[in-house]
Amino acid sequence: MSGERLFNPVSDGDVTRAILRSFLEEIEEYTSSDAIVVGAGPSGLICARELAKNGARVLLVERNNYLGGGFWIGGYLMNKLTVRAPAHAELAKLGVPLTETRDGLYVADAPRACSKLIASACDAGVKILNMTTVDDVVLRNGRVRGVVVNWTPVGALPRQITCVDPVSFEAGVVVDATGHDAVVAEKLAGRGLITLAVMGPMDADSSEDAIVEKTGEVFPGLIACGMSVSTVHGLPRMGPTFGGMLFSGLRAAEIASVQALPACNTKAEPAFA
Ligand code: 48F
User: Fold this and answer.
1) Which residue minimizes the CA distance to atom 33 of ligand 1?
2) pTM above 0.85?
3) Hey, what domains does the chain have and what are their CATH numbers?
4) Cβ < 6 Å from ligand 1: which residues?
Protein backbone atom coordinates (compact mmCIF):
# COMPACT_ATOMS: atom_id res chain seq x y z
CA MET A 1 0.00 0.00 0.00
CA SER A 2 3.15 2.20 0.43
CA GLY A 3 1.48 5.12 2.25
CA GLU A 4 -1.53 5.27 -0.09
CA ARG A 5 -4.87 5.36 1.73
CA LEU A 6 -7.24 2.48 1.20
CA PHE A 7 -10.47 4.10 2.43
CA ASN A 8 -12.13 7.35 1.52
CA PRO A 9 -11.38 10.14 4.05
CA VAL A 10 -14.16 10.89 6.54
CA SER A 11 -14.63 12.87 9.75
CA ASP A 12 -16.14 11.29 12.85
CA GLY A 13 -18.94 13.85 12.69
CA ASP A 14 -19.74 12.66 9.15
CA VAL A 15 -20.25 9.15 10.46
CA THR A 16 -22.62 10.35 13.20
CA ARG A 17 -24.56 12.59 10.75
CA ALA A 18 -24.98 9.72 8.29
CA ILE A 19 -26.47 7.50 11.00
CA LEU A 20 -28.76 10.15 12.49
CA ARG A 21 -30.14 11.41 9.20
CA SER A 22 -30.76 8.00 7.74
CA PHE A 23 -32.40 6.62 10.90
CA LEU A 24 -34.64 9.63 11.55
CA GLU A 25 -35.70 10.16 7.93
CA GLU A 26 -36.73 6.55 7.54
CA ILE A 27 -38.41 6.12 10.90
CA GLU A 28 -40.46 9.29 10.51
CA GLU A 29 -42.16 7.69 7.50
CA TYR A 30 -43.30 4.85 9.75
CA THR A 31 -44.90 6.88 12.51
CA SER A 32 -48.09 5.94 10.61
CA SER A 33 -47.89 2.76 8.58
CA ASP A 34 -50.21 0.13 7.14
CA ALA A 35 -49.26 -2.63 9.56
CA ILE A 36 -47.14 -3.08 12.68
CA VAL A 37 -45.91 -6.59 13.47
CA VAL A 38 -44.69 -6.99 17.06
CA GLY A 39 -42.04 -9.69 17.49
CA ALA A 40 -39.53 -10.93 14.92
CA GLY A 41 -39.70 -14.67 15.54
CA PRO A 42 -40.53 -17.00 12.64
CA SER A 43 -44.25 -16.14 12.58
CA GLY A 44 -43.67 -12.37 12.77
CA LEU A 45 -40.91 -12.39 10.15
CA ILE A 46 -42.94 -14.31 7.58
CA CYS A 47 -46.09 -12.29 8.31
CA ALA A 48 -44.25 -8.97 7.91
CA ARG A 49 -42.57 -10.22 4.74
CA GLU A 50 -45.85 -11.27 3.12
CA LEU A 51 -47.56 -8.01 4.03
CA ALA A 52 -44.68 -6.06 2.51
CA LYS A 53 -44.78 -8.23 -0.61
CA ASN A 54 -48.49 -7.38 -0.90
CA GLY A 55 -47.58 -3.71 -0.99
CA ALA A 56 -48.12 -2.70 2.65
CA ARG A 57 -45.74 -0.41 4.54
CA VAL A 58 -44.80 -2.65 7.45
CA LEU A 59 -42.99 -1.83 10.68
CA LEU A 60 -41.56 -4.86 12.50
CA VAL A 61 -40.80 -4.10 16.16
CA GLU A 62 -38.40 -6.38 18.06
CA ARG A 63 -37.24 -5.91 21.65
CA ASN A 64 -33.93 -7.73 21.15
CA ASN A 65 -30.99 -6.56 19.12
CA TYR A 66 -31.16 -9.75 17.06
CA LEU A 67 -34.15 -10.92 15.01
CA GLY A 68 -35.35 -14.52 14.74
CA GLY A 69 -36.84 -15.28 18.18
CA GLY A 70 -36.81 -19.03 18.84
CA PHE A 71 -35.89 -19.89 15.24
CA TRP A 72 -32.10 -19.95 15.79
CA ILE A 73 -32.33 -23.09 17.91
CA GLY A 74 -34.52 -26.14 17.28
CA GLY A 75 -34.92 -27.36 20.84
CA TYR A 76 -32.85 -28.18 23.90
CA LEU A 77 -30.06 -25.83 22.72
CA MET A 78 -29.56 -27.91 19.55
CA ASN A 79 -29.52 -25.91 16.33
CA LYS A 80 -31.47 -28.28 14.10
CA LEU A 81 -35.17 -27.58 13.59
CA THR A 82 -38.00 -29.66 12.23
CA VAL A 83 -40.81 -28.74 9.89
CA ARG A 84 -43.69 -30.91 8.71
CA ALA A 85 -45.04 -31.14 5.17
CA PRO A 86 -46.42 -29.13 3.52
CA ALA A 87 -44.71 -26.20 5.33
CA HIS A 88 -41.23 -27.44 4.34
CA ALA A 89 -41.95 -25.87 0.94
CA GLU A 90 -41.64 -22.40 2.54
CA LEU A 91 -38.08 -23.17 3.61
CA ALA A 92 -37.29 -24.81 0.28
CA LYS A 93 -38.38 -21.60 -1.49
CA LEU A 94 -35.76 -19.74 0.57
CA GLY A 95 -33.09 -22.19 -0.57
CA VAL A 96 -32.76 -23.89 2.82
CA PRO A 97 -31.48 -27.48 2.46
CA LEU A 98 -33.89 -30.01 4.03
CA THR A 99 -33.45 -33.65 4.99
CA GLU A 100 -36.56 -35.84 5.14
CA THR A 101 -36.10 -38.03 8.23
CA ARG A 102 -39.38 -39.90 7.84
CA ASP A 103 -42.49 -39.35 5.75
CA GLY A 104 -43.26 -35.65 5.75
CA LEU A 105 -40.91 -34.70 8.63
CA TYR A 106 -37.96 -32.56 7.57
CA VAL A 107 -34.88 -31.33 9.44
CA ALA A 108 -33.04 -28.12 8.60
CA ASP A 109 -30.09 -26.21 9.95
CA ALA A 110 -31.66 -23.57 12.23
CA PRO A 111 -29.14 -20.71 11.74
CA ARG A 112 -29.35 -21.19 7.98
CA ALA A 113 -33.17 -21.19 7.95
CA CYS A 114 -33.37 -18.26 10.36
CA SER A 115 -30.90 -16.04 8.52
CA LYS A 116 -32.59 -16.71 5.16
CA LEU A 117 -36.00 -15.84 6.60
CA ILE A 118 -34.65 -12.60 8.09
CA ALA A 119 -33.01 -11.69 4.78
CA SER A 120 -36.24 -12.37 2.88
CA ALA A 121 -38.17 -10.00 5.18
CA CYS A 122 -35.53 -7.27 4.68
CA ASP A 123 -35.54 -7.83 0.91
CA ALA A 124 -39.34 -7.49 0.82
CA GLY A 125 -38.99 -3.99 2.30
CA VAL A 126 -40.01 -4.54 5.93
CA LYS A 127 -38.84 -1.65 8.13
CA ILE A 128 -37.21 -3.04 11.27
CA LEU A 129 -37.07 -1.34 14.63
CA ASN A 130 -34.94 -3.54 16.89
CA MET A 131 -33.94 -2.86 20.52
CA THR A 132 -37.48 -1.52 20.87
CA THR A 133 -40.01 -2.94 23.31
CA VAL A 134 -43.76 -2.63 22.85
CA ASP A 135 -45.27 -1.86 26.23
CA ASP A 136 -48.82 -0.82 25.37
CA VAL A 137 -51.35 -0.33 22.61
CA VAL A 138 -52.93 2.79 21.14
CA LEU A 139 -56.69 2.27 21.45
CA ARG A 140 -59.27 4.65 20.01
CA ASN A 141 -62.99 4.17 19.39
CA GLY A 142 -62.86 0.49 20.28
CA ARG A 143 -60.02 -0.36 17.88
CA VAL A 144 -56.30 -0.96 18.29
CA ARG A 145 -54.61 1.73 16.22
CA GLY A 146 -50.96 1.33 17.06
CA VAL A 147 -48.38 0.51 19.71
CA VAL A 148 -46.56 2.34 22.47
CA VAL A 149 -42.80 1.69 22.48
CA ASN A 150 -39.64 2.50 24.32
CA TRP A 151 -35.98 1.64 23.80
CA THR A 152 -35.43 -1.78 25.34
CA PRO A 153 -32.54 -0.60 27.57
CA VAL A 154 -34.89 1.87 29.28
CA GLY A 155 -36.55 -1.11 30.98
CA ALA A 156 -33.18 -2.16 32.41
CA LEU A 157 -32.41 1.21 34.04
CA PRO A 158 -32.62 1.62 37.83
CA ARG A 159 -36.07 2.80 38.96
CA GLN A 160 -34.90 6.24 40.07
CA ILE A 161 -33.92 7.18 36.50
CA THR A 162 -36.62 5.45 34.48
CA CYS A 163 -39.02 8.37 34.04
CA VAL A 164 -38.59 8.08 30.29
CA ASP A 165 -41.90 8.45 28.50
CA PRO A 166 -42.51 6.12 25.57
CA VAL A 167 -43.64 7.17 22.07
CA SER A 168 -46.35 5.73 19.80
CA PHE A 169 -46.50 4.40 16.26
CA GLU A 170 -49.87 4.14 14.50
CA ALA A 171 -51.01 1.60 11.91
CA GLY A 172 -54.08 0.25 10.14
CA VAL A 173 -53.59 -3.10 11.86
CA VAL A 174 -51.31 -4.58 14.56
CA VAL A 175 -50.12 -8.19 14.65
CA ASP A 176 -49.14 -9.81 17.96
CA ALA A 177 -46.28 -12.19 17.11
CA THR A 178 -44.62 -12.03 20.54
CA GLY A 179 -44.67 -15.81 21.12
CA HIS A 180 -45.82 -17.53 24.30
CA ASP A 181 -46.16 -14.24 26.20
CA ALA A 182 -48.76 -12.72 23.80
CA VAL A 183 -47.60 -9.34 25.09
CA VAL A 184 -49.93 -7.18 23.00
CA ALA A 185 -53.06 -9.25 23.65
CA GLU A 186 -52.08 -9.23 27.34
CA LYS A 187 -52.36 -5.42 27.37
CA LEU A 188 -56.03 -5.77 26.42
CA ALA A 189 -56.63 -8.71 28.76
CA GLY A 190 -55.19 -6.73 31.69
CA ARG A 191 -57.94 -4.16 31.14
CA GLY A 192 -60.69 -6.76 30.80
CA LEU A 193 -61.17 -6.09 27.07
CA ILE A 194 -60.45 -9.71 26.06
CA THR A 195 -59.94 -12.94 27.97
CA LEU A 196 -56.81 -15.03 27.53
CA ALA A 197 -56.78 -18.78 28.04
CA VAL A 198 -53.83 -20.79 29.37
CA MET A 199 -51.52 -22.42 26.83
CA GLY A 200 -52.16 -26.16 26.65
CA PRO A 201 -49.58 -28.91 27.21
CA MET A 202 -47.40 -30.27 24.40
CA ASP A 203 -48.96 -32.10 21.47
CA ALA A 204 -47.11 -31.32 18.27
CA ASP A 205 -49.45 -33.41 16.17
CA SER A 206 -52.63 -31.47 16.93
CA SER A 207 -51.27 -28.06 17.82
CA GLU A 208 -49.93 -26.90 14.47
CA ASP A 209 -53.25 -27.32 12.66
CA ALA A 210 -55.12 -25.70 15.56
CA ILE A 211 -52.81 -22.66 15.68
CA VAL A 212 -53.10 -22.00 11.96
CA GLU A 213 -56.87 -22.41 12.13
CA LYS A 214 -57.24 -20.02 15.08
CA THR A 215 -54.84 -17.39 13.73
CA GLY A 216 -56.90 -14.24 13.37
CA GLU A 217 -58.35 -11.12 14.89
CA VAL A 218 -58.67 -11.18 18.68
CA PHE A 219 -59.89 -7.59 19.00
CA PRO A 220 -60.68 -5.00 16.33
CA GLY A 221 -57.32 -4.00 14.84
CA LEU A 222 -55.31 -6.76 16.59
CA ILE A 223 -54.40 -10.10 15.00
CA ALA A 224 -52.73 -12.94 16.91
CA CYS A 225 -50.10 -14.96 15.08
CA GLY A 226 -47.68 -17.78 15.98
CA MET A 227 -47.45 -19.01 19.59
CA SER A 228 -49.45 -16.05 20.85
CA VAL A 229 -52.47 -17.79 19.26
CA SER A 230 -51.87 -20.72 21.56
CA THR A 231 -51.83 -18.44 24.62
CA VAL A 232 -54.93 -16.52 23.52
CA HIS A 233 -57.01 -19.65 22.79
CA GLY A 234 -55.48 -22.21 25.17
CA LEU A 235 -54.18 -24.50 22.40
CA PRO A 236 -51.51 -27.17 22.91
CA ARG A 237 -47.88 -26.10 22.42
CA MET A 238 -45.76 -27.81 19.79
CA GLY A 239 -42.12 -27.32 20.75
CA PRO A 240 -39.36 -27.30 18.16
CA THR A 241 -41.37 -27.92 15.00
CA PHE A 242 -42.01 -24.79 13.01
CA GLY A 243 -44.46 -25.40 10.16
CA GLY A 244 -47.31 -24.07 12.28
CA MET A 245 -45.37 -20.83 12.91
CA LEU A 246 -44.66 -20.31 9.21
CA PHE A 247 -48.24 -21.02 8.13
CA SER A 248 -49.71 -18.98 10.99
CA GLY A 249 -47.59 -16.03 9.81
CA LEU A 250 -48.83 -16.46 6.24
CA ARG A 251 -52.43 -16.67 7.44
CA ALA A 252 -52.05 -13.60 9.66
CA ALA A 253 -50.68 -11.67 6.67
CA GLU A 254 -53.67 -12.71 4.56
CA ILE A 255 -56.09 -11.48 7.22
CA ALA A 256 -54.09 -8.33 7.98
CA SER A 257 -53.80 -7.43 4.28
CA VAL A 258 -57.53 -7.00 4.05
CA GLN A 259 -57.44 -4.50 6.91
CA ALA A 260 -54.08 -2.89 6.24
CA LEU A 261 -54.20 -2.23 2.55
CA PRO A 262 -57.46 -0.31 2.26
CA ALA A 263 -56.33 1.58 5.34
CA CYS A 264 -53.02 2.67 3.83
CA ASN A 265 -54.48 6.04 4.75
CA THR A 266 -54.07 5.99 8.52
CA LYS A 267 -52.55 9.44 7.96
CA ALA A 268 -55.86 10.62 6.47
CA GLU A 269 -57.76 9.63 9.61
CA PRO A 270 -58.49 12.54 11.94
CA ALA A 271 -56.00 12.36 14.81
CA PHE A 272 -58.64 12.44 17.55
CA ALA A 273 -61.46 10.49 15.88
O1 48F B 1 -40.93 -16.66 20.53
P2 48F B 1 -40.87 -16.38 19.07
O3 48F B 1 -39.94 -17.17 18.23
O4 48F B 1 -42.41 -16.43 18.55
P5 48F B 1 -43.16 -17.21 17.39
O6 48F B 1 -42.93 -16.55 16.08
O7 48F B 1 -42.45 -18.64 17.33
C8 48F B 1 -42.43 -19.50 18.44
C9 48F B 1 -41.31 -20.49 18.26
O10 48F B 1 -40.05 -19.82 18.20
C11 48F B 1 -41.24 -21.56 19.37
C12 48F B 1 -42.34 -22.53 19.38
C13 48F B 1 -42.96 -23.04 18.13
O14 48F B 1 -42.16 -23.86 17.43
O15 48F B 1 -42.78 -22.93 20.42
O16 48F B 1 -41.20 -20.92 20.63
O17 48F B 1 -44.54 -17.37 17.86
O18 48F B 1 -40.55 -14.84 18.85
C19 48F B 1 -41.23 -13.82 19.54
C20 48F B 1 -40.42 -12.54 19.38
O21 48F B 1 -41.14 -11.47 19.97
C22 48F B 1 -40.22 -10.63 20.67
C23 48F B 1 -39.19 -11.61 21.24
O24 48F B 1 -37.98 -10.97 21.58
C25 48F B 1 -39.06 -12.60 20.08
O26 48F B 1 -38.04 -12.22 19.16
N27 48F B 1 -40.96 -9.89 21.70
C28 48F B 1 -41.54 -10.40 22.82
N29 48F B 1 -42.11 -9.42 23.53
C30 48F B 1 -41.88 -8.26 22.86
C31 48F B 1 -41.16 -8.56 21.68
C32 48F B 1 -42.22 -6.89 23.09
N33 48F B 1 -42.90 -6.51 24.18
N34 48F B 1 -41.83 -5.96 22.19
C35 48F B 1 -41.14 -6.32 21.08
N36 48F B 1 -40.79 -7.62 20.81
Assistant:
1) 134
2) yes
3) 33-265 (3.50.50.60)
4) 38-44, 61-64, 69-71, 133-134, 177-179, 181, 183, 226-227, 237-242, 245
